[in-house]
């Protein structure tokens, strides 16, 4: 049985000072050594507007109930109302939460889930993932969808599980696993090829997990492809072949794009300059970073920053 934790509604995010807030880790007390796979959290705040840096260690379904939410990714921004919901993949983003005139608070019901949940889902429903590679996006930032009647009923069922979990803990564990599959299957059925490519890009097969962990834990460490292959206990040719099967492009191109995307994010949202970030992105010299950035975006980092 997957470990599951239900989080009390009294917990409030401390985002006003714009520090990096790691979720769901920071929701837990310091004595929790292992996060559960599935987490429910009924989150609210009464501030007029709160903006924060979010580092999500898990994927998140955010079902907005009151107020407005704005999410800024490295390349895109979205705005949600209380009639919408969004799937936010694990990673970094900027988030703004606002009360609106007719609402007394901002409120969102959150459903966190892990790579392990995705892998289990993909293994169980493998027939859903026979999507041609050409339909898979190179990088998917989010999935935005409307709260239709099915979704509204689904949210109510999660809230009921959350409300009564103290007296039905064992039942809640079984229900949350089922509820995770329910929302996934509904979105696959309802949105088809609009949802499946994102899901496929997030959920590798169980056999892919070691390679994905090695790759995604070393994006900015400037390791060579040979060194990454060694860490995966693979020959260079096998590593390159498996890498392209998983990510849809060559290792050198994928790492380059990830570094450029992070650079664009830091320049736009953190107001950093090239001399501050080139080393942390794995470039040995400022000139090589500026040259790579200009080749990708057609502008130097300074000009790019001035234009956004």
Short characterization:
The protein has 308 residues and is α+β, with helices and mostly antiparallel strands. The chain is built from eleven helices and eleven strands. It folds into two domains: 4-200, Jelly Rolls, CATH 2.60.120.280; 206-307, Arc Repressor Mutant, subunit A (Orthogonal Bundle).
Protein described:
The chain is built from 11 helices and 11 strands. With 308 residues, the protein is of the alpha+beta class. The chain has 2 domains: 4-200, Jelly Rolls, CATH 2.60.120; 206-307, Homeodomain-like (Arc Repressor Mutant, subunit A), CATH 1.10.10. It has a 6-stranded mixed β-sheet. Strands 2-4-9-6-7 form a 5-stranded mixed β-sheet, with no helix packed on it. Strand 6 (68-72) and strand 7 (77-80) form a beta hairpin. Helix 2 (149-164) runs antiparallel to helix 3 (169-191), helix 6 packs across helix 7 and helix 8 (251-269) crosses helix 11 (301-307).
Which structural traits does this protein have?
single chain; 308 residues; alpha+beta; Jelly Rolls; Arc Repressor Mutant, subunit A; 2 domains; six-stranded mixed β-sheet; five-stranded mixed β-sheet; 11 helices; 11 strands; 21% strand; HTH_AraC; DNA-binding; AraC-type DNA-binding protein
């Amino acid at each position: 049985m997957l470990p599951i934790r239900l989080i009390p509604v009294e917990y409030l995010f401390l985002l006003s000072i714009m520090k990096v807030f790691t979720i769901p880790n920071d929701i837990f007390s310091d004595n929790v050594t292992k996060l559960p796979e599935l987490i429910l959290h009924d989150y609210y705040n009464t501030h007029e507007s709160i903006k924060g840096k979010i580092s999500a260690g898990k994927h998140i379904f955010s079902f907005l109930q009151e107020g407005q939410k704005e999410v800024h990714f490295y390349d895109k921004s979205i705005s949600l109302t209380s009639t919408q919901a969004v799937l936010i993949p694990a990673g970094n983003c900027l988030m703004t939460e606002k009360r609106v005139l007719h609402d007394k608070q901002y409120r969102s019901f959150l459903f966190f889930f892990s790579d392990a949940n995705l892998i289990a889902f993909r293994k169980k429903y493998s027939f859903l993932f026979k999507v041609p590679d050409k339909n898979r996006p190179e990088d998917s930032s989010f999935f935005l969808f409307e709260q239709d009647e099915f979704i509204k009923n689904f949210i109510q069922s999660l809230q009921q599980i959350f409300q009564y979990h103290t007296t039905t803990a064992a039942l809640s564990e079984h229900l949350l696993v089922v509820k995770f599959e329910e929302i996934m299957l509904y979105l696959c059925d309802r949105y088809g090829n609009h949802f499946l490519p994102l899901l496929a890009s997030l959920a590798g097969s169980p056999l892919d997990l070691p390679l994905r962990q090695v790759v995604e834990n070393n994006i900015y460490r400037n390791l060579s492809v040979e060194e990454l292959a060694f860490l995966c206990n693979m020959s260079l040719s096998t590593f390159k072949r498996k890498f392209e099967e998983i990510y849809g492009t060559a290792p050198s191109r994928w790492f380059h794009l990830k570094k450029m995307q992070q650079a664009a994010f830091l320049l736009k949202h953190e107001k950093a300059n090239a001399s501050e970030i080139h080393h942390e992105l794995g470039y040995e010299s400022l000139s090589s970073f500026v040259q790579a950035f200009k080749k990708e975006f057609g502008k130097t980092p300074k000009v790019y920053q001035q234009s956004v």
